[in-house]
Amino acid sequence: MNRLKNVLLFVMSAFILLAAFAAISPKRAHAVVATLVQVANTATNPVLNRDIDRADSEPFATTLCYGSGGFYPCYLGQEMPSEFSVPATTSDGSAVKELVIDYADGNCYTTAGGTLLDVDLATTVSENTVNSVGSSYHFFPLQQNPNITASNQGHIFSWSTPTRIFADPGTTVLLIINSNIDTNFGCSMNLTGHLAKQ
Known about the structure:
By secondary structure, this protein is mostly beta strands. The protein has a single domain, classed as Jelly Rolls (Sandwich). It has one helix and nine strands; from the N terminus they run H-E-E-E-E-E-E-E-E-E. The protein has a five-stranded antiparallel sheet with strand order 1-9-3-7-6, with no helix packed on it. The model has no long low-confidence stretch (mean pLDDT about 80).
């Protein structure tokens, strides 16, 4: 009788243990039947097959220069401009939707005792304006290098920063330098980015 009792106790314990494992074990996944999807690629409704926002698809780079009092920092056989017009088409003829400036760096040299107040970049965007303002002035953080001076014992200022600046095609991008009244200076700014196509 004790033997039968022990066997029944063992069988019931094993059954309870198996039931507990079955309750906590993960359930098997059942296959989901997928429906067939057909995509039509027509000229009026094309399927996007590449990343249209890739920065390297239509690269853009330029240098702007501005000087006063005989300072011309970018003289390469001719004086470099302080502004440019945003192109309406890319070099391969595609229409430009927007210029996107992703990075700006540059430097300025001043005369002895000279001080720069700020370096700005003026751009224009006509879409999605707020308070009817489409023109923007973008200010760059100037860093004066206290250990390096220009050859005339003036000062050297520099900046280097990632940006996200937009400008419409056909509008002017302009480098603006503000300094104290007695300062002569020469500044150059490098801009890199991309032309977003329509």
